Amino acid sequence: MMEVQARVSTDDVLSYELLFGYSGETNERNLFLLAQGNAFPKEEPLYRWDTTLIPDGDYRLVLRVYFSNGEKREAVIDGVKVRNYSPVESPTASDLILSTEPVLETPANTPLPVSFTPTPPRPNPGSIQPTQWTGSVVRGIAVSLLLFIGFGMVLSLRKRKKRR
C-alpha cells in the first residue's frame, strides 16, 4: 500500500485527478485514473494506492489540479518503483555491526548453485477455465440436437396431416 500525499495552498480548486502510467511513457492514452475529486483531504492522504494489483515496474504519477479560473496545473513524479514481488534493488543502510571477524577470501572459481523458485501467476478473473467451456459446449450440442429432433418431428407430423 502506498500513500499519496498532496497539498494545495489555495482554496480555488475546482477538481483534481491523480493518474499513473509507465515511467518514461508520455502518451496521454497510457495514463490510468487512480482518484479524482473536488477538494483535497485536509488530514488524510490524497489516495491509498494498492500496488499489488499492478505488476512490478517503474511508474510515474501525474497530479492534475483544475482551478476555478480555468487554469490547470500538473505535477509529475517519474521513477516510482513498485516492487511487490521482486527483490528491492538497493538495500537500505543499517547501523548494525554484523561481525567484527576479519573477512576470509573465498576461492574465485567456486560455482554457486542457482535455484529458482517460480511463483505461480494469479488466476485471471476474466479467463474461462476448461471445465467451464467444455460444459457449455456439451450443453450447446445437446440443445441443438433436441431442437433438431423436435423440428424434425414437427415436419414429419405436418407431412402426415397433409397426406390424409
What is the strand and helix layout of this fold?
Blueprint: E1 2-4, E2 13-22, E3 32-37, E4 47-49, E5 57-67, E6 72-82, H1 130-163
Report on this model:
Keywords: Membrane, Transmembrane, Transmembrane helix. There is one protein chain. The chain is of the alpha+beta class and 164 residues long. It folds into two domains: 81 residues, Immunoglobulin-like (Sandwich), CATH 2.60.40; 34 residues. It has a four-stranded antiparallel β-sheet with strand order 3-2-5-6, with no helix packed on it. The chain has a two-stranded antiparallel ribbon with strand order 1-4. The longest helix is centred in the C-terminal third of the chain and has 34 residues. The N and C termini lie far apart (80 Å).
Corresponding CATH architecture of the largest domain: Sandwich
At the fold tier of CATH, the topology name of the largest domain is Immunoglobulin-like
| Low-pLDDT regions | 96-100
Order of helices and strands: EEEEEEH
Number of domains: 2
- The percent range for helix content is 10-25%
Shape: elongated
Strand order of the largest sheet: 3-2-5-6
What's the pLDDT, averaged over the residues?
79
| Main pleated-sheet profile | 4 strands, antiparallel
Counting DSSP E segments of at least 2 residues, the number of strands comes to 6
**Tally of contiguous helical segments:** 1
CATH level 1 class label of the largest domain: Mainly Beta
* Beta-strand residue fraction: 25-35%
Provide the gyration radius in Å.
31 Å
Task: Provide the structure class.
Answer: alpha+beta
